[in-house]
Amino acid sequence: MKHFEYARVASYEEASAILTTTDESRVIAGGTDLLGALKDDILAEYPRQLVDIKRIPEASGISVKDDKLRIGAATTLKDVAESSAVLKYAPILAEAAKTVATPLIRNVGTLGGNICQDVRCWFYRYPHEVGGRLHCARKGGDTCYALQGDNRYHSIFGGMKAHATPCTKKCPAGTDIPAYMEQLRKGNIAGAAAIIMQVNPIPMITSRVCAHFCQDECNRLCNDESVAISNVERSVGDYILEHCDDFYKVPETSTGKSVAIVGSGPSGLAAAFFLRQAGNDVTVYDSKQEAGGMLMYAIPAYRLPKEIVRKLTRALAGMGIKFVCGTQVGKDVEAAKLEKDFDSVYYATGAWKRRVIGLSGEELTTFGLDFLIEVNQWMKGKVGTEVLVTGGGNVAMDVAITAKRLGAKKVTLACVEPRDLMPASKEEVARAEEEGILVMPSWGLSKVVEKDGAVKGMELKRCVSVYDEKGRFSPQYDEGEKIVVNADSIMMAVGQLVDLSFLDEKYKMQLNQRGLIDVSEDSQMTSRPGIFAGGDATIGPATVVQAVAHGHNAARGMNRFLNVPEHVCNGMKKSGETFLTFDPAAAVKKDAARLKELPAAEHNIEREDAFSLTPEQTLEEAGRCLNCGCYAVDPSDTAPTLVALGAIIVTNKREIPASEFFCEKLKADERLQPGEIVTRIDIPIVEGAVMHYDKFRLRDSVDFAIVSVSSLFSAKGGKMQGAKIVLGGVAPIPIHAKEAEGFLIGKEINEENAERAAEIALQGAFPMSCNEYKLVEAKVAIKRAILRVA
Amino acid sequence: MEAGGFDPVETYKKNYIQDGDRFIWRDGRLWKAHTMDFVKAIQAAADKFGWKDAWKGWGKPTWVSEDGKRARGVGCAIIGNADAGEDQNEAYVRVTPDINGGESQVTIIMDVTESGMGQRAALCKMVAEILNVPYERVQLTTPGTGEHNPSAFGLCGSRGTITYGRPVCDAAEDVRRQLFELAVPHLHVPASTMELVDFGVRSKHRPEISVNWKKLVPHDLSITGYGRHMETFGSPSMCIIFLEAEVDLETGKSDVVRILSGTDVGQIIDPAALEMQLHAGIGSSSMDSALFEENIVDPATGRTMTYNMIEYKWRPFNQFPKFDTSILESHFDTFQFKAVGVAEITGAAMAPAVMQAISNAIGAHVSQYPATPNVVLKALGKL
């Protein structure tokens, strides 16, 4: 064990003071749970200070007062099991205490410790010295090892969210991906769509063009392939587009506030949607002829068909959002006027300006983005027979592929980054190479080779490193290694700049060091009250989903500014459902679903390359999502019993009903506030009930419950009058089988009714790959407990 | 046996190795069992267990509770091992007369470890008996002091009875022979008519004539005898397990309610230790390999999940079933003490007997170890 400080305190005040002021401090009483965890070094963080509360005078002892059995938290389990008062007033608790571990443990282990103990999950408890602790979800890691491992002792009611999953964390919009996958598995595509729409109103677009960071740290990658989240999202997006009227509704009430949005790219559209949804009057300005910004003008149609963008903007217009296109702010309408005419303004003007890098002959090259806009406007631009594209991002890929598809004989793509650091997604690079484009990583630009004012090619120099030790972009070149690539046209796709020239002198707004609009992180508000900004205009060229996230954030910020209620965003919390589930049978599929693609020979620049998944494929792929959370079970014998008894957990700060204390939060640490200590357990005295604790386990001692049933019954004339059934060992928290109780009341106590009650109690159960037997054990235990009353 | 519907006890009786049977052991040589015959021991154990009444045939329960929710079945399995004579060992036995008084100290110089089976004590008893001295006067050197002890295997398990027994007995007899020869000038009788008594040598026919070892052993010196065992595989051992298991047909949980362990070890050297050796057959990786004891490797991470005694399920003492023994005491021609070791094999037949008993109780074949509730429920078709 590592060194720690130890303080033996005389009062709860003293203990609480230490706990509040000392970081990494923990309470110790019996120590039977904590010391084992410390010896095995299962947690990456080790407590610096232990506060021993065992010697606090009032901490131990059992008494009866005000019709309540009062048990001090530091009372040993042996004393609880043998106390005449407990045996008389709450015999079920004595039974439960007596089943804990071994006599040695019961001699020192306390009741308070028993209810606050950590899980016994064998992955969670894996000793550090035997090959390294397992950093599971419960410890702040990403995965639950029980999902794909031996889960014979784990939950049969699903898991609980320990924190946001890596997919959600990696998604700039914060989409609760596991939640919508779960809805899909339940056959509720509309529910899935609603979860996505809480944070992203354009999934039909993000699924097609986003770099899907969410897939980068999917827990499946440990064993096989990431869930094809973007492909599933695309199906949901298509569904949303097909059912526009359900998802882009005219708001029922009006707030009477008006907002202007400048720029109709992804950020502007997202903000418009959320602002309109809240009941505001929304007007969107755009300098181009059609709404959509980069979505309409920069991203090639083979990746994002323009009809999708048009359908979306039509749907948004259907909500009552007004689009004013062909109007440039700063030219056709002054920024100051917008501020005057509207209650709030959002600038999402993007990054459209050419970046000049100061290359010799640069004026002879074409700005890649201009080329894409040209193509998308007229479909037929002029491209040379040999084309060099410079840049390693997705825009560069789009330019290269488009050039190739338009008939360029040879297309070469050069970028400073080595292959593994290229900003473009792997799929896009692969697509480019598939189309015959020569990709040359680790080459920087030296100069344009020209003859008589005409481009002949580009001299490249070897790039040896791209980032400095602080991770900043700072390419270093080997001037000795150079090469000339012949080309008639050179497309520069080395990034775009933000053009803020529309903001005139009089209309001051604070800019940051990079010359971008400075905004508050939590609301997107600029230095001017009521004026908001987001998207590329505030951070430089980024992704579509990042723009959407800004639009969402801005809408929330603007609604707050306008005193308009924010929309509910509770993808994480599903009403009435506590547990996470997945599909063990579908989850074994190793290969991710792939989109069906057009044959390479049929590729062109107008038609989308890939088809969406079929509904069956979508469902199957959603089945591969493991719904990562914590699937361990509450190991306590006394916790479910205390829930059944309707006990009150008394702390030094408050009194908490046992049902609330045990059944709402995943971990004991989260159930208590800083400095809060369980001091006593008060149990209302229940008269006339038959109460028992039944524990199913492999060995008669040592073992924790595989299944436990705490039951209180009262019967008269062979009929059940009162029932309380709480299951332990089957879920991350005790399960109160309320529906089964309701069913039993007034029923005759017989085999048939007992079986039916057991069925009802296990209705929501969801066994994993190795623990279906627990379902049987739980049913049998409930049935037997009921029949015992007869 | 199951396919033929044979009673396992009858099958074992007809097929277990007997005196004169030839077999090729794992050393590749042909061996012949000699003087060993376990038929009587098998039958005695079966009778004591009540096998004839309990055995209802393959897949048939012995007993079913009134409500039909619990059933019992019996199982019987046997184990034998010709390794009982494996391992070459050697020993010295040294007699050192006391400087004062007429007693002597006997020291066995041998490399013998002890793991609770009572091997070291048994060897001291053997030497005490041959030299006819009190047990307390015999000591055995500390094992592991390599350069001081003669060559030996260390911990021989059940083989030690023969493979250590023979060297120490030979060495003790060597000492006795030397003492008799030294006593001839004193007693004037042939060595063959002498016996050892009270740290002296005396004539069997004229007990009043005797001489103390102190007089026989040269002043300040001692007498040392030497003995050794050369590997032999001709004396197999046997342990037969009978047991009854009860299965909860609703939960699939099984447990053993009674056990009888039967054997014939030849001459019994330490009755209490022998009984404990049979009890120890419940042990680790024995009976409970069929019920819940298991080394679990997680298929996803490749890690061993049974890293502590909560996850690795050893039976606690409060869960021990009724245990009976049936021990016959033939005189096998193995070495001076006519015995064969047994401890190591007492657990080996437990797990298959449990599987047989569970299968008979539930009327369905269970072959996946251990037969946890999960496995039994599957066999019952409830999962």
- Our count of domains of chain A comes out at 4
Please report the total strand number of chain B as a whole number: 14
CATH class of the largest domain in chain A reads: Alpha Beta
CATH class identity of the largest domain in chain B: Alpha Beta
CATH topology of the largest domain in chain A: Enolase-like, domain 1
Mind telling me the C-alpha Rg of chain B?
A: 26 Å
Number of H/I helices of chain A: 30
SSE succession of chain B: HEEHHEEEEHEHHEEEHEEEHEHH
How would you sum up this structure, described in words?
The complex is a heterodimer of chains A (790) and B (383). In chain A, a hairpin with a 5-residue loop joins β16 and β17. In chain A, the strands form 8 sheets. A 5-stranded antiparallel beta sheet of chain A has the order 4-5-25-23-24. The radius of gyration of chain A is 32 Å and the shape is elongated. The mean pLDDT of chain A is 92. Chain A has 4 domains: 273 residues, 2-Layer Sandwich (Enolase-like, domain 1); 128 residues, Fumarate Reductase Iron-sulfur Protein, Chain B, domain 2 (Orthogonal Bundle); 176 residues, FAD/NAD(P)-binding domain; 136 residues, FAD/NAD(P)-binding domain, CATH 3.50.50.60. Chain A is an alpha/beta fold and 790 residues long. Chain A is 32% helix and 19% strand. Chain B has a 5-stranded mixed beta sheet, with helices on both faces. Chain B has a 4-stranded mixed beta sheet with strand order 7-6-5-11. With 383 residues, chain B is an alpha+beta fold. Chain B is built from 10 helices and 14 strands. Chain B is elongated. Chain B is 25% helix and 22% strand. The two termini of chain B are 29 Å apart. Chain B has 2 domains: 223 residues, Aldehyde Oxidoreductase, domain 4, CATH 3.30.365; 143 residues, Aldehyde Oxidoreductase, domain 4. In chain B, β6, α4 and β7 form a beta-alpha-beta unit. In chain B, α1 packs antiparallel against α2 and α4 runs parallel beside α6. The longest helix of chain B is centred in the middle third of the chain and has 23 residues. The chains are: A alpha/beta (790), B alpha+beta (383). At the A-B interface, α30 of A face α10 of B.
